[in-house]
Design brief:
With 372 residues, the chain is α+β, with helices and mostly antiparallel strands. 27% of the residues lie in helices and 26% in strands. It has one domain. A hairpin with a 7-residue loop joins strand 3 and strand 4.
Length: 372
């Protein structure tokens, strides 16, 4: 793993916008004056770790359900049985993203698993692939995300259109949702994009509907389960006939409390960091809300003194304490690996970097390539 400085494409703005990445220039989000180089050994290590971690997460959730410990994950009690049923039935899931600490030398360490609403999908699946064709056409990339998504949509058992919903005023989420609409079309499925605010409840027929009162039979929602479960319409979720993607069991996988359960069930695993529900075990740690997005409200402590922190609105449901793992630095920048999972299997990576040790929504996306 190595960071290289390169010359950006002169027409990158036009190409990125044509690919749908409308926000590429905001806060210098997309960076291509540098890139990361990996070799095949490193790719194999990341792929194997990602596959094993996903299997461990699902097994950990199954044990948490059996031991009636979903309360530790701040799941409302009304959803404990539905989550158990969703997991038992292995309800259709699409994708997720691990955040891993990896330097190309030591074993990758799991920082968290966004199994419910991960973004940076378009730039990972499409934009960095076309960058590769322009800059390193003879090289490869650890990236089969696009093809895997299309193949997975073709396995969706339900008939009818798929509504794809996100917050209307959130540009990043809307672009990600628009990309998923495209993958559905390429899979031969009808897709309808809408704002999450445009979804209503038909109490007479006990179903969710769009503004045209069309029943929503299949809903991909780029909107967190922990929000949905606590909102007014959340009371109708279990009784509705809507298939949710991601399914209910993904809500628990996306809770950072899973990190503490993983360490309890797999102590000493080389891809895990020690993590606990209380702060009495560690002197250097990351204090993380059970639910948060893009590094918000994460605090870093060394010798129990706060080293760094990110602002945000999260933390009301509680926290976990994970052993502090410093991200590797390249040219003074901290780099984190986003390792994608599609249909339960490793599908590729992305790299984000920041001058601070906490990866946030302002961190830069940097493309990568692979050499033999």
């Amino acid at each position: 793993m190595w960071r290289e400085r390169i010359e950006p494409r002169p027409d990158r703005a036009q190409k990125l916008e044509a690919q749908g990445l409308s926000f590429h220039a905001r806060d210098d989000y997309w960076r291509e004056d540098a890139c990361y180089r990996f070799d095949l050994r490193e790719v194999a290590v990341l792929e194997a770790a990602t596959n094993e971690l996903h299997e461990m997460c699902v097994a950990t959730l199954a044990r948490a359900v059996a031991e009636e410990r979903l309360g530790q994950l701040a799941i409302p009690e009304a959803f404990w049985d539905p989550i158990a049923t969703s997991l038992q039935q292995d309800e259709f899931s699409l994708y997720g993203r691990f955040d891993l600490c990896y330097d190309g030398k030591t074993a990758p360490k799991m920082l968290e698993y966004n199994a419910d609403t991960p973004t940076s999908l378009l730039e990972s699946a499409v934009c960095q692939w076309f960058w590769l064709q322009d800059q390193f056409p003879r090289a490869d990339q650890f990236n089969s995300i696009h093809e895997r998504l299309i193949a997975r949509w073709r396995e969706l058992p339900a008939q009818g259109p798929v509504h794809v919903a996100s917050l209307e005023e959130h540009e990043e989420d809307w672009a990600c949702a628009a990309y998923l609409v495209d993958t559905l079309a390429q899979a031969g499925r009808e897709a309808i994009q809408l704002g999450i605010e445009a979804i209503g409840w038909d109490g007479v027929r006990s179903r969710f509907v769009d503004l045209g009162l069309q029943p929503i039979d299949n809903l991909f929602k780029l909107y967190p389960w922990e929000w949905l479960m606590r909102e007014e319409f959340g009371a109708h979720i279990v009784a509705s006939r809507t298939r949710f993607i991601e399914p209910l069991w993904k809500a628990a996988l996306s809770c950072k409390g899973l990190l503490a359960l993983l360490w309890e069930f797999y102590p000493g695993h080389p891809n895990l960091l020690p993590a606990y529900f209380d702060d009495g075990h560690l002197v250097a740690y990351a204090k993380k809300p059970l639910y948060s997005r893009e590094g918000a409200n994460v605090e870093l402590f060394v010798d129990r003194q706060r080293l760094d922190a990110a602002e945000g609105p999260y933390g009301q449901q509680g926290h976990i304490y994970q052993a502090l793992q410093t991200l590797p630095r390249f040219d003074g920048l901290h780099a984190v690996i986003g390792s994608w999972v599609v249909a339960g299997k490793s599908a590729g990576i992305c790299v984000r970097e920041d001058r601070t040790p906490i990866t946030t929504n302002l961190s830069h996306f940097v493309p990568h390539y692979v050499v033999n």
